[in-house]
């Protein structure tokens, strides 16, 4: 299977399957001399880790990261640092229940990648989705932790945060937005009132054995103007591609995105004035911090839509590998809203793209 690597100078190659012994990644292109231990990565893994509430899959994985290569420390050094060589990261799988998938080994889940995967490769690991499982995204979160360290080294403190802004038909009230609230509820929701309502909403969906989609917003602050390129390496192009590569994502927008189609030129213009520090100040950010494929220095804002998981208990019409028509239900432990745990994954992909662009920018301008 090809195409398991993303990035240019900051390159991440992931490996492993949902029910295999382990998953992991190799991160290449990290500059030397950056302090890095497992403890720097683990807090981000905790944000994505399954089994933390009744609203996510109950698979109990500690998601403990092991650094296998690419770092060094001896008695003369105050801290362990990167060496500039490939960083190997390993995450063991400890709570697989492959028997849950025995009933679907020859059936294709509607809305899932089962059929297309089988059509392309002729063989399919049906245990939890194998390589196509969202379990793979744990490795992206680990790589994103390293990307954050690179950005902090280059630009000082860079903040990358995500929030769930819509669950199914239920939206947040923008006037209630508080980043402090995001970690106070199981949904990464910035609106305390909406989060309380979502508990009742998702509980009903979960008890019915169904699922629902979501929209996630990612915001990066502290990135200077100038990252990206005007043609084939547009920052928004690569960011959209990275976010679209996340499992179950069906749409991406930058800034006001699709809403700009209903705006006039006057409404959409991010007007400018000269700031007291001698740098431009923008009076709005409809563009989401990117113009002409290049960062403006404003917050970079992206949103992506995640479809409902296809693993549900309601009988659905499908076919078997033999072509026989049948019905299917999917047993096992699944997220009623997979968009919840996509929040830290979106943050990680934003970090990886920005780190890659930052390293390429550094190579261009000296």
- Count of beta strands: 18
Biggest β-sheet, characterized?
A: 5 strands, antiparallel
Distance, first to last CA:
37 Å
Low-pLDDT runs:
none
Task: Give the neighbour order of strands across the main sheet.
Answer: 1-2-3-7-4
Q: State the order of secondary-structure elements, H for helix, E for strand.
A: EEEHEEEEHHEEHEHEHEEEEEEEH
Mean pLDDT: 91
Give the overall shape, derived from the CA principal axes: globular
Radius of gyration: 21 Å
Query: Structural class from helices and strands?
Result: alpha+beta
Fraction of residues in helices? 25-40%
Q: List the total number of helices.
A: 7
Strand content: 15-25%
Write up what this structure looks like.
This protein is an alpha+beta fold and 366 residues long. It has helices at residues 38-48, 114-121, 137-155, 192-207, 235-244, 265-268, 342-365, and strands at 5-6, 11-16, 22-28, 65-67, 71-72, 81-82, 87-92, 159-167, 170-171, 214-221, 249-254, 272-274, 280-282, 290-291, 294-295, 300-306, 316-319, 325-328. The strands form six sheets. Strands 1-2-3-7-4 form a five-stranded antiparallel sheet, covered by helices on one side. The chain is globular and about 70 Å long.
């Amino acid at each position: 299977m090809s195409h398991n690597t993303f990035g240019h100078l900051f390159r991440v190659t992931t490996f492993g399957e949902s029910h295999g012994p382990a998953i992991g990644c190799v991160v290449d292109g990290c500059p030397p001399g950056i302090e890095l231990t497992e403890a720097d990565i683990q807090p981000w893994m905790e944000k994505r880790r399954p089994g933390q509430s009744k609203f996510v899959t109950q698979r109990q994985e500690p998601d403990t990261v092991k650094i296998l290569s690419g770092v060094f420390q001896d008695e003369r050094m105050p801290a362990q640092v990167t060496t500039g060589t490939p960083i190997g990261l390993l995450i063991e799988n400890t709570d697989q229940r492959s028997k849950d998938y025995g009933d679907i080994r020859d059936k294709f889940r509607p809305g899932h990648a089962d059929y297309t995967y089988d059509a392309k490769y002729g063989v399919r690991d049906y245990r939890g989705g194998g390589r196509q499982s969202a379990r793979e995204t744990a490795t992206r979160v680990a790589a994103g932790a390293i990307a954050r360290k690179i950005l902090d080294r280059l630009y000082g403190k860079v903040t990358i945060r995500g929030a769930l802004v819509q669950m199914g038909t239920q939206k947040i009230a923008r006037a209630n937005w508080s980043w402090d609230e995001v970690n106070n509820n199981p949904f990464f929701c910035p609106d305390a009132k909406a989060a309380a309502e979502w508990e009742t909403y998702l509980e009903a969906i979960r008890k019915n054995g169904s699922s629902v989609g979501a929209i996630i917003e990612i915001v990066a602050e502290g990135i200077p103007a100038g990252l990206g390129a005007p043609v084939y390496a547009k920052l928004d192009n690569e960011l959209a591609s990275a976010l679209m590569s996340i499992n179950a994502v069906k749409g991406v927008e930058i800034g006001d995105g699709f809403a700009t189609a209903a705006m006039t030129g006057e409404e959409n213009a991010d007007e400018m004035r000269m700031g007291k520090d001698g740098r431009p100040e923008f009076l709005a950010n409809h563009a989401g911090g990117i113009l002409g494929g290049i960062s403006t220095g404003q917050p970079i804002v992206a949103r992506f839509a995640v479809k409902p998981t296809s693993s549900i208990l309601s009988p659905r019409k499908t076919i078997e590998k033999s072509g026989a028509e049948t019905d299917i239900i999917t047993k096992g432990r699944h997220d009623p809203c997979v968009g919840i745990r996509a929040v830290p994954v979106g943050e990680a992909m934003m970090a990886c793209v920005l780190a890659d662009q930052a390293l390429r920018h550094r190579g261009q301008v000296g």
